[in-house]
Amino acid sequence: METLQVSLGERSYPILIGPGLLGEADVLADLITARQVLIVTNEVVAPLYLATLEQAIAADEQHAIVLPDGEDQKTLQTISTIIDALIEHGFHRDACLVALGGGVVGDIGGFAASCYQRGIDYVQVPTTLLAQVDSSVGGKTAVNHPRAKNMIGAFYQPTCVLTDTDTLKTLPPREFAAGLAEVIKHSLILDHGFFVWLEGHIDDLVAMDAAALGFVVRRNCELKAAIVAEDERERGRRALLNLGHTFGHALESLGGYDRWLHGEAVSIGIALAARTSARLGWLDEDDCSRIEALLRKAGLPVSAPNIEVDRLLERMSMDKKASAEGLRLVLLKQIGEGVIVPSPEESLLRDVIETQTMVQQDYIDGLSESCP
Ligand SMILES: NC(=O)c1ccc[n+]([C@@H]2O[C@H](COP(=O)([O-])OP(=O)(O)OC[C@H]3O[C@@H](n4cnc5c(N)ncnc54)[C@H](O)[C@@H]3O)[C@@H](O)[C@H]2O)c1
User: Fold this and answer.
1) Which of 37, 100, 204, 253 could potentially form a cystine with 59 if both were Cys, beta carbons 3.0 to 4.6 Å apart?
2) Does 28 lie in the same domain as 129?
3) Candidate from 15, 40, 44, 231 with most ligand 1 atoms within 8 A of CB, to mutate
4) Which are the contacts of 113, defined by CB distance < 8 A and separation ≥ 6?
5) Of the residues 170, 193, 227, which one is the last residue of a structural domain?
6) 204 near 286, Cβ under 8 Å?
7) What's the CA-to-centroid distance between 130 and ligand 1, angstroms?
8) The whole model's pTM is what?
């Protein structure tokens, strides 16, 4: 087991990473000391891991809420359901909520914990790669508004993150690949050496080699913890973590949230951000090809066919990452160094999106021609 620290003064907390942690009663006894515990999970994760976790937690009083699966559960109605349960069971302010699941359950559980009696402790137990390398660390909690994603939420840090890497064994391959998009993103904005490592080990990762996975989860948590410690509430550098997200959120919302997984949309967004960076003279063709090759080897898309460019640009301007001064885009000065660019030229973005769509369509056509 490895332990990292997110350093935020009195809100500091540990991230524990290792195989089989979910069932380690001794470890959990030190982490969860509350007398009353509510586990929030969903219908996919519960049959796999809820019983193991329940048996390992030693609280006097334990309850579980099993939500339906899916992004459409990130609503105020779900928060209300959780708060109803906390009140019904007479939970006090010193109770603890445990979020067992992917980023959806983590975002919901964290926000419910932040609201109940002005804030109770919560523990993140992430079970998807995306949640283990990204969403469980940093204290961003939220639910969606019908008109925009993650619009209602709070910065609210967990008391610890318990990452059992064995849970990734049951993750569907498409969900695993979606998590790799955030891994590649972290390397691109912060760590050239890690990007090179990923190029050399992507096949091991896709094959879910335990040593490679353990290293990736730890390195990502280190990178994310450092940037969160520097800028907890995203007033500056933390915004670098949005590489690919402005394009990505717009694609997700155009696709009605069921066409692309979040990580897939981010992957396309990363490829577009790389091409935009090349137009500004920061990356060269070789850099863009390396980035796209890595994304593809991870099983991720680098272009969306039939993009309606006007609608995409309109959605991008509505992104909550846009400030009152306008759109801010994260681009790359070089591989391993992200940069925040205020007010990029719309004509430049339009050109990059149109060109990337055409180039990739040629690539797809070429593939189908070479297939018997
Ligand atoms: N808070 C943050 O900083 C932050 C950062 C990035 C993304 N997010 C949010 O995270 C969400 C996406 O998270 P996600 O990609 O983890 O999606 P998710 O939570 O929907 O999980 C993906 C799928 O995998 C299933 N699943 C979870 N663990 C499993 C396991 N071990 N085995 C088998 N199936 C499993 C889930 O039930 C679901 O069907 C989005 O809502 C996004 O907005 C938040």
Assistant:
1) 37
2) yes
3) 44
4) 97, 99, 119, 120, 121, 122, 141, 156
5) 170
6) no
7) 6
8) 0.93
